[in-house]
Amino acid sequence: MTDETKLNGLTLLKKGETRYPTSPDEAKLETFENANQQRNYWIQFKTSEFTSLCPITGQPDFATITIDYIPGKLCVESKSLKLYLFSFRQTGTFYEEIVNRIYTDLFEQLAPKRLVVNGDFTARGGIFSSVKIDSEEA
After folding, report:
1. DSSP symbol at 72
2. Who has the most CB within 10 Å: 55, 56, 130, 131?
3. Residue 28 in this model has a pLDDT that exceeds 80
């Protein structure tokens, strides 16, 4: 496979102005072919800069989101994932819904051999919250 063929369909990597999606529905997760399908290996993405809004108060919520997966035929392109995660910034939703949405969107797009999504949310009212979904247990 040529480098040009690998890059077909990756529109967000092109030079120029980046347009930030305003919601997860508007965001686009881009993928590329896994060149090492003959073996299982883990890919991890982790961001401590995730933000969303409390659906009741409208106050910002902060989290570290960790995504671990063993790819099947496809891998997610990291810039599209960054923009996808950014798209939650103005979304009012509960922690459980956020982590489930990320899991569902990635699982549907990638069909990975295994996927684990974990959201560690900063304390609200003195209580830390963590939500984890593992495809082996889902």
Report:
1. S
2. 131
3. yes
Provide CB contacts within 8 A for 54, sequence distance 6+.
60, 61, 92, 124
Residue 11 near residue 30 (C-beta atoms within 8 A): yes
To the question of pTM greater than 0.70 for the whole model, the response is: yes
Whether 75 sits among the annotated catalytic residues: the reply is no
- Among candidate residues 61, 68, 75, 120, the one labeled active-site is 61
- CATH fold of the domain at 29-134: GTP Cyclohydrolase I, domain 2 (3.30.1130)
pLDDT digits (tens, 9 = 90+) for 11-25: 666 656 678 899 999
Per residue in 69-98, pLDDT (tens digit) is 999 999 999 999 999 999 999 999 999 999
Owner of token pair 């699982």: 107
Distance (Å) of CA 92 to CA 61, 87, 114: 9, 11, 28
CA atoms of 111 and 104, how far apart (whole Å) = 10
Annotated catalytic residue, options 25, 54, 105, 120:
54
Q: How many Cα neighbours within 13 Å face the side chain of 39? A: 4
